[in-house]
């Protein structure tokens, strides 16, 4: 009849029973998440040349149908450790205007400004894309919000 005495203790609200049940019987196992026991796999991805990168993103921006795809492609293009070419930027600008996303069109140049090494490179992008910017009606952030000094 040990089971009935256990039930009586549980029904009385005995604190010794609840403390004993809450205490773990064994020590928890240590998880070794910092070290991997599997061997690293060789990468299946080949190195992509700058020309292949450019053609891939030009095609992706040409097939953009909505704002989500546009912003996802922009995030992917700017995530690499390089500055996208002017043809990729032009395709992105056209895609932004095609899906009627004015704010993203303006912010594309902010991304270029953040990626280039110096102001001279940024100015080269601006001069090369000036006619397209004027055609599409995309101003720069500097034109919209001049800095007060």
From TrEMBL:
SUPFAM superfamilies: Cytochrome c oxidase subunit E. Keywords: Heme, Iron, Membrane, Metal-binding, Mitochondrion, Mitochondrion inner membrane, Transit peptide. Transmembrane segments: none annotated. One of its GO terms (cellular component) is respiratory chain complex IV. Pathway: Energy metabolism; oxidative phosphorylation. Gene3D superfamilies: Cytochrome c oxidase, subunit Va/VI (1.25.40.40). One of its GO terms (biological process) is mitochondrial electron transport, cytochrome c to oxygen. It is found in: Mitochondrion inner membrane. CDD domains: Cyt_c_Oxidase_Va. One of its GO terms (molecular function) is metal ion binding. It is a peripheral membrane protein. The keyword Heme applies. Its main location: mitochondrion. Component of the cytochrome c oxidase (complex IV, CIV), a multisubunit enzyme composed of a catalytic core of 3 subunits and several supernumerary subunits. Component of the cytochrome c oxidase, the last enzyme in the mitochondrial electron transport chain which drives oxidative phosphorylation. The respiratory chain contains 3 multisubunit complexes succinate dehydrogenase (complex II, CII), ubiquinol-cytochrome c oxidoreductase (cytochrome b-c1 complex, complex III, CIII) and cytochrome c oxidase (complex IV, CIV), that cooperate to transfer electrons derived from NADH and succinate to molecular oxygen, creating an electrochemical gradient over the inner membrane that drives transmembrane transport and the ATP synthase. Belongs to the cytochrome c oxidase subunit 5A family. This is Cytochrome c oxidase subunit 6, mitochondrial. It comes from Epichloe festucae (strain Fl1). The lineage of its organism: Eukaryota, Fungi, Dikarya, Ascomycota, Pezizomycotina.
